[in-house]
Amino acid sequence: DEGFDVKMISKMKDDYTMVPVMYNLYGFDWVCTSCPHRHYQGPTPSGCPKCGKPMKKEIKFAPRLNRKSLTYRFDHTLHFQYWGSLQKRQQVVDGLMETMSLQGSSFMCTREKYWELKLCDEKFGSWGQQGTEVATKTWLSGGKVMVNTTTWYSHLFRTQGGDFGFPYPISGNQQEHAREYCRDLFFNNKYEKQIHPLSWLVDKFWPIPDWDKPENSVVLDMVRKKGKEFNEKKPKKGIIFYTDNQLPLKIAHAVQNQLRRMNLPIVSASLKPMPHFGKNVHLPLKRGYL
User: Fold this and answer.
1) pLDDT score of 236 more than 80
2) pLDDT at 290 > cutoff 80
3) DSSP H/E element including 20
4) What is the secondary structure of 170-227 as a DSSP string?
């Protein structure tokens, strides 16, 4: 989208991971050099299926407006899935909407959060589970995964094989390694930065397709059992932030950013509304001597 970077940055918060709306990319058509035949992008054809003459690419490079994706999830194996029906349940506020997971081909976060949360951790290997990893780490560490509905990008899906497939070899063993590592990390609540168990995220977006099937109840029960164990072991500590909102904003924001990095639940008690800093208790009072 024209100006997508400005539109994304204008709505960013320190604890957000944000993704634009995604369209499929219409990259090119194959066009016959002799007859009127043409067809949609794919592997290089040996010749025109109508007349046998050579074909050439005609570049389109535009979004497919009828192939739009906004919201995503993962299934009970933590494998990525699209979740279009979530849009009907979610509320768009100031152009933003929550999503459980990410597709992975485009996202934005702050430089500090990227390193702090160890996003795109190379322990996952070279391919697989990136969307689940980035989204789950963001949610479980106290952040939010948001779709910016005011801007978009287009993604080229190279799934037809031949010379229109992945430009490098992909190992099935590598993909399975990423999936096993992901399940061990999040099913067992081993992520060092998390303040919530995986069960918290599942319950936040419940009901979830696939998770609510009777045949998957064993996994769901396991996740909730481990979530209960995590909460029982978790230190019961947090931050209460009192302010009369008189501090210069530059200093106030620096203080708040430092407190967010502690990954503890925050309750803010303030004389002015602070909806973006922890759970806010707004007291419509006047500043006193104390």
Assistant:
1) no
2) no
3) strand 16-32
4) --HHHHHHHHHHHHHHHHTT--TT-SS-HHHHHHHT-S-TTTTSGGGHHHHHHHHHHH
Residue 23 tokens read as 């369209």
Among the listed residues 172, 193, 191, the one whose alpha carbon sits nearest the alpha carbon of residue 183:
191
pTM for the whole structure = 0.78
Q: How far apart (Å, rounded) are the C-alpha atoms in residues 63 and 53?
A: 29
CA dihedral 8, 11, 14, 15 (to 10 degrees): -90
- At residue 200 the predicted structure's pLDDT band, cuts being 50, 70 and 90, is very high
Q: How far apart are CA 61 and CA 282, in angstroms?
A: 49
> First CA to last CA across the chain, in angstroms?
51
DSSP tag of 117? T
Cα–Cα distance between 37 and 51 in angstroms, integer?
9
Task: Yes or no: say if 74 and 100 are a contact pair by the CB < 8 Å rule.
Answer: yes
CB half-sphere exposure, 157, CA atoms < 13 A: 11
Element (H, E) at 130: helix 130-140
> pLDDT for 242-261, tens place per residue?
999 999 999 999 999 999 99
Q: Region 165-172: what's the mean pLDDT?
A: 81
CB atoms within 10 A of CB 156: 14
